[in-house]
Specification:
4-stranded mixed β-sheet, alpha/beta, 6-stranded parallel β-sheet
Length: 473
């Protein structure tokens, strides 16, 4: 078996789908920041599906913090295997990434943004990569932002690097550009636009004005369950006859809803099933609150009960029933009516996806970065429920489970993965202090005695596994 590369594509087993276009004719019209598993399973797969129609939408990918992806995929000419998990696993080699840049190649990254052939910048840098304050502005006290503002010619943060590239694009006369966030943030385009505008204004007001006039920041909603690559996947890929240093996997279901607001030519992702809409708000709220909120609930409650994966948690009928009630009775009422979205059917589809036996999605992975996720996934729903006078007794249970999760002994639990890990660990054994002093909870909830009383009661009830079971009733 020979390692995956352009030279070995023809030698792949017959049941492995491979690029249906000439890779030598591709032009990198997309610059992507953060080529992790989700990007390679999602946006890169959409690009791969349209390159036979238009070869100008290949990808130059930039990793901000690690060389791991470049080290794995450069010897493979950017190729990698995507396993589509369902009743039957299907294999597909993705060829849309034609260039892999690392953090040491900032000039090359900026040059790509400035290139006239670049039409789109996309990003999956996770919530913490945006360096935002609680009110959605740029956090100028963030260490990376503070450093970049003192030396903007050599930026290290995502926002700093992006503004540097846009500055070079302006200087080169390449014209406007579309920057498309693909992260799980409500109003992700607006948030990125504000962060970029704040940063640019701090270093060059004229550049900030150019960006405001020439650069568009559409929002988008992305969805596809993408478990982390593990040794089991590597072994399965090898058994299928593919030698791949970094294969990835996702469920067969995928969704991409994009606000139709582009500075120039619109990418033809609709040919691969993407939806271009006037407003993505309803779709993103449904996804963040129903799918992601339920995912986080399964993670924290499931870990307290000793479960390892989403499938394990859904096999626990008490927990699965609780999550379904949470979605239908507590989260769904917080959502408005969105044309083209049947909320009840959407909930049913999510539950079916959670039960997919081919997906081994670790609860510990979902539990990462809770301080960044919960404000959008659960706390915003609780705020809406309190404003509307609806009960929050069930909604606070997964939040209380997160508080319990923070205080679990490490080891045997893995270290806490969270940008606020040090602060949360120091506060973990005092849940009231986490609410009051962590900066995670919105002021409206911090000052709400009804919410705090319900949360405290739920936290007490989750003191052991039998208590967790009792709260699921």
């Amino acid at each position: 078996m020979t390692r995956l590369s352009n030279a070995t594509l023809a030698d792949l087993p017959a049941d492995v789908a491979r690029p249906g276009y000439d890779r030598t004719a591709l032009v990198p019209g997309i610059v992507h920041v953060g080529p992790g598993a989700f990007h390679r399973a999602h946006q890169a797969a959409y690009a791969d599906a349209v390159l036979a129609h238009d070869p100008r939408w290949a990808i130059s990918a930039m990793a901000l913090n690690s060389t791991d992806v470049a080290d794995a995929l450069r010897p493979q000419d950017g190729l990698y295997t995507l396993a589509l998990l369902g009743a039957e696993t299907k294999w597909r080699v993705i060829g849309s990434i034609v260039e892999l840049l690392t953090r040491a190649e900032g000039d090359a990254f900026a040059a790509r943004i400035a290139a006239p052939t670049t039409r789109l910048v996309t990003a999956t840098v996770t919530e913490k990569g945006y360096c935002l304050t609680a009110d959605g502005g740029l956090d100028r006290d963030h260490p990376a932002i503070r450093r970049d503002l003192t030396d903007p010619a050599r930026p290290t943060s995502f926002v700093g690097r992006l503004v540097d590239g846009l500055g070079r694009r302006r200087a080169g006369g390449a014209g406007g550009l579309t920057v498309l966030s693909c992260d799980n943030l409500a109003g992700n385009g607006r948030r990125l636009s504000r962060a970029v505008g704040d940063y640019a204004a701090a270093i060059d007001p004229d550049l900030a004005a150019w960006i405001a006039g020439e650069v568009r920041f559409p929002s988008s909603m992305v969805d596809s369950i993408t478990p982390a690559t593990d040794n089991a996947l590597r072994a399965t890929v090898a058994a299928a006859g593919i030698e791949d240093a970094w294969p990835i996997q996702r469920e067969a279901f995928t969704q991409w809803v994009i606000e139709d607001d582009f500075a120039g030519e619109r990418p033809p992702f609709d040919l691969a099933g993407a939806q271009f809409v006037a407003d993505v708000t309803g779709f993103e709220e449904a996804k963040l609150r129903l799918l992601n909120g339920a995912h986080s609930s399964l993670a924290y409650l499931g870990l307290l009960l000793g479960h390892e994966t989403v499938g394990d948690a859904m096999a626990d009928t008490r927990l699965a029933g609780f999550v379904e009630r949470l979605m239908r009775q507590d989260i769904a009422p917080s959502l408005g009516v969105t044309a083209g979205l049947d909320t009840g059917a959407y909930i049913g589809a999510i539950l079916d996806r959670f039960r997919n036996p081919a997906i081994r999605h670790l609860l510990a992975q979902i539990a990462w970065d809770g301080s960044q996720k919960l404000p959008f996934r659960l706390l915003a729903t609780i705020v809406d429920a309190r404003r509307a006078g609806r009960p929050v007794d069930r909604l606070v249970v997964p939040v209380a489970a997160w508080l319990r999760f923070l205080a679990l002994p490490r080891p045997p639990m893995a270290p806490l993965v969270d940008p606020l890990a040090a602060r949360l660990t120091a506060l973990a054994h005092d849940p009231d202090a986490v609410v009051q002093d962590s900066g995670v909870f919105p002021a409206e909830l911090v000052g709400d005695p009804t919410f705090r009383a319900a949360l405290a009661q739920a936290w007490v009830g989750l003191c052991d596994a039998s208590g967790v079971i009792g709260r699921l009733a």
